[in-house]
TrEMBL record:
<dbReference type="InterPro" id="IPR011008">
    <property type="entry name" value="Dimeric_a/b-barrel"/>
</dbReference>
<dbReference type="Pfam" id="PF01037">
    <property type="entry name" value="AsnC_trans_reg"/>
</dbReference>
<dbReference type="InterPro" id="IPR019887">
    <property type="entry name" value="Tscrpt_reg_AsnC/Lrp_C"/>
</dbReference>
<feature type="domain" description="Transcription regulator AsnC/Lrp ligand binding">
    <location>
        <begin position="6"/>
        <end position="74"/>
    </location>
</feature>
<protein>
    <submittedName>
        <fullName>AsnC/Lrp subfamily transcription regulator</fullName>
    </submittedName>
</protein>
Length: 78
């Protein structure tokens, strides 16, 4: 499993709605509200044989009220 971090910017007043859908889908390992340009930071694990872009598009980025995202791939844990 490959850990992937995704930051989400949500429409004003909709952060909790987006977070609720993410938890309902049971795909996130960790989910945080954050300050700054993005509203949510999530960590999820994606199987090595899965297409990460396709997985995110089908399971995260289709959630209403997500305005923008930033995905950070991981390489080595220290």
């Amino acid at each position: 499993m490959k850990p992937v971090f995704v930051q989400l910017q949500c429409a004003p007043g909709k952060t909790y709605d987006v977070a609720h859908v993410l938890y309902e889908r049971e795909i996130v390992s960790e989910l945080y509200s954050t300050s700054g340009e993005f509203d949510l930071l999530l960590k999820l694990y994606i199987a090595e044989d899965k297409d990460i872009g396709k997985f995110l598009n089908q399971n995260v980025l289709d959630i209403p009220y997500i305005v923008r995202s930033l995905t950070t791939m991981t390489f080595t844990a220290f």
